[in-house]
Amino acid sequence: MSKLTPMMQQYESIKRKYPDAILFFRLGDFYEMFNDDAKIAARVLDLALTSRNRGGGEKAPMAGVPFHSADSYIAKLIAEGYKVAICEQLEDPEEAKGIVERDVIRVITPGTVIENEMLKEKDNNFLAAAINYKEKLGFAYVDISTGEFLVTELEAELEDKLWDEIDRIHPREILTDESLVTREGFNNLIKRIDFVHNEIEPGKVEKAYDYLREHFQTRSLAGYGCEEMDAAILAAGEILKFLKETQKRALAHINKLTTYNLNDYMVLDSATRRNLELTSTIRGRTKKGSLLNILDRTVTSMGGRLIKKWINQPLINKDEIEMRLEAVAELVNNYIFLQRLRNNLDGIYDLERILSKVTYGTANARDLSALKFSLLKLPDLKQDISSLKAGLFSQLNSRFDPLEDLADLLNQALVDEPPVSVREGGLIRDGYNQELDELRRASREGKEWITNLQKTERERTGINSLKVGFNKVFGYYLEVTKANLDKVPENYTRKQTLSNSERYITPELKEKEALVLGAEEKINQLEYDLFVELRDKVGENIERIKETAVVIAFLDVLASLSLVTLENDFQRPEIHNDGIIEIKEGRHPVVEEMVEGVFVPNDTYLDTEENRFIIITGPNMSGKSTYMRQVALIVLMAQMGSFVPARKARIGIVDRIFTRVGASDDLTTGQSTFMVEMNEVANIVNNATGRSLIILDEVGRGTSTYDGLSIAWAVSEYINNPEKIGARALFATHYHELTRLEEKLPGIKNYNVLVEEDENGVHFLHKIVPGRASDSYGIEVARLAGLPEEIINNARKILDRLEHNEGQIAAAAEESITEVIAEKEVKELVKKEVKEPKEKQRQLALFKNEDPIVRKLKEKDLLNLTPMEAMNFLYQLQQEARKEGEDNG
């Protein structure tokens, strides 16, 4: 250290305190980075890497960015997952004795961003903490840009629900203890979600309790509903501790802790949210093509964030659902009023994020101006909802503070279009402060005298080329060309000689200059002081503003759902606590927006008695998957409080929606198609209840035909059995053998996709009707794909041979599968399929002596073959059949 220059000693001393952050070290008008930080910044930010003397004849790598444009550079580093420590000069360099005092004033991490440039308007930016403590899991998360702070606790054995909750909120940064870091579920999250992870050693519950109590200035946490939740308190305490260490200030806008219970909402696991494409698409992960894209017509950022939460957390309480639906209905029935409400909401800025900047002391005059224009809209908005009758509007109206006193204050104080800088004046209106008005008058009068000086001096001296000028070195001056030097009066004092002229000053000019410049300096300082006073006044009203922001978000979401209802012909669903789901002419809300022509609607009837388990058969591309997803989305939309795409809908509330959809390898976790499928099925059979809705699409296709058929049969029986689960379920399958379950078990019904046949072939009508499908449409699909007639005709001959023995095979299959199910429970069967390689598993005895050509044809998934693959496959079978015939002949 002794060899280092004093400045580098200071730098190294500060850097040691923040080894995991890139240190932005303020030097004059730049933030400089040194050593490894400089190398990283040069690479990520595309900066020139230079060097600086560090002492002892050594050079330190250096890179820097201008302080006034640092936000954009910081944003890039944060996006790459880095932390940035902001080290500022804490004293005026001109007044400093020796090295300027410096220290870190804030550490910016991915989860502690408040700058608009680094945030998405309609997305939260969460910092989360998950703690394992005494057989409990505590989970807390905060968005410091909006002030939201939530906490929950669950049993340790419900670990999967913790991973699902993390997946739901998509935090940018998470704090976890060592015991959770090693869990498989957490490692899968890291591969699937883009967040920064910080491993921590949790402190004592008592310390965390005190952190929370001191922050919220309460004697206990009983008022927040988490007094006895030790694991939750630990998680929330770790968040506050992290914020204290990184933000280095009191965060007054985080003024409430909300305790919630996962059982108060419909449970949606990560697979279901992904498969139903609730907020982003499976391919591309874009908002366009998702349910959110259809429902989100909000006009405020606060409303945009709230509607996303409603979609991800549907309600399960009938009264709460009906309250939302009643409010939407009132707006739907008054379109003119709805438009006026939306017009009054439009233009309201993000009040929550303005408040966070107020708390940090970084809100500028334009931020307060945006707040002012937003508050000026509130009286009309309150008058609007005061006339509404729905119970939810009455509740919102009682919470709605129009903040007229604060709006008047801001309107009196701020000019309409203030500058960005708060240090250079031009912020405060005339008439707001008497001292400021007097200084401005003095400044104006002095400037007017100086402006008139050029005219009067030209007339007095006869020098027509005389000019009055100004620069920062000499101030105001009189400039005379050398040709007129003989006319210069005696009271002029020479100040500067130029090549073609001389510059002079006069006592009167210097007196007026002192008046003007002194007044401007005082004006700028006084305006700054008045602005800070105004900002502090806003800070004193944080609780009032936040409450009104919540009301605005609710109104925006209700108005959005109402507008979508009118534009898409949605209808109000009936909500019941029984097990009946009845949908008349239901439509998929997203697909109907994307298809050309008319979307074909479909009916649905599910209950907990004779119509629990619906088996749907039919060819690929006929609409099975779309139909099942639309049923799930209609139920979800109804329970979030939205009208639904159907002529009529009666929804018996569901506690969870499960989906097992699609077939693809999970490359992020190294799992095969079949492993992914079995894990999802295991999750369903282990967690579904009689109140759940289950969507199953092609269970068992990831393994051999007979293994898959056995599992699909066993899973169907297990889910349908009221003594096991008895959930309402839709199961699309190509295993036509499963349709025999309708004859064997109560509660199971067969449906299929209606197909029309004529002389031109087969046409899929996308209509779901009772009964099982014919299993001969695969060849028609091949014909539609363009396979030659010779292949099509040969395929039909082979199919005739197979169907000749179908009855015997199906009967034998049913008997054998029943034996398998009788031997062990479905959970054990699924567990066996997940853990044991399929080549080691026993095939059903009935297929041991099956003709190899028949076996290959039955096992081949013809509907997923390209025309060329199908042609090659059929040619191969033909060659084998001819050889077999020659051998037998």
Number of helices: 32
Low-confidence stretches: 665-670, 816-824, 834-848
Distance, first to last CA = 97 Å
How many individual β-strands? 27
- Average pLDDT level: 88
Tell the overall outline: elongated
Helix content: 40-55%
**Rg calculated over all Cα atoms:** 36 Å
The major sheet is characterized as:
7 strands, mixed
Tell me the β content. Answer: 15-25%
Q: Which structural class matches the secondary elements?
A: alpha/beta
The main sheet orders its strands as: 13-23-24-25-21-26-27
Description:
The protein is of the alpha/beta class. Helices cover 46% and strands 18% of the residues. The protein is built from 32 helices and 27 strands. The strands form 5 sheets. Strands 13-23-24-25-21-26-27 form a 7-stranded mixed sheet, with helices on both faces. The protein has a 6-stranded mixed sheet with strand order 3-4-2-1-5-6, sandwiched between helices. Strands 11-10-7-8-9-12 form a 6-stranded mixed sheet, with helices on both faces. A hairpin with a 2-residue loop joins strand 7 and strand 8. Helix 11 (301-312) packs across helix 21 (542-568) and helix 13 packs antiparallel against helix 16 (378-386). It is elongated. Residues 665-670, 816-824 and 834-848 have low confidence and may be disordered.
Layout: helices, strands, pairs:
Blueprint: H1 6-15, E1 21-27, E2 30-34, H2 35-45, E3 50-55, E4 58-66, H3 70-79, E5 83-89, E6 102-108, E7 127-133, E8 136-143, E9 148-155, H4 159-169, E10 173-177, H5 178-181, H6 184-192, E11 196-200, H7 205-216, H8 230-247, E12 258-259, E13 267-268, H9 270-275, H10 291-295, H11 301-312, H12 318-332, H13 335-345, H14 351-360, H15 365-375, H16 378-386, H17 391-399, H18 404-413, H19 434-461, E14 467-471, E15 475-481, E16 493-497, E17 501-505, H20 507-539, H21 542-568, E18 574-576, E19 581-586, H22 591-594, E20 602-606, E21 613-617, H23 624-640, E22 648-652, E23 656-660, H24 673-687, E24 693-697, H25 705-720, E25 728-732, H26 741-744, E26 748-758, E27 761-770, H27 777-784, H28 789-804, H29 806-823, H30 826-835, H31 852-859, H32 867-888
Parallel strand pairs: 1-5, 7-10, 9-12, 10-11, 13-23, 18-22, 21-25, 21-26, 23-24, 24-25
Antiparallel strand pairs: 1-2, 2-4, 3-4, 5-6, 7-8, 8-9, 14-15, 15-17, 16-17, 19-20, 19-22, 26-27
Helix pairs in contact: 7-8, 11-21, 12-21, 13-16, 13-21, 15-18, 17-21, 19-20, 24-30, 25-29, 25-30, 27-28
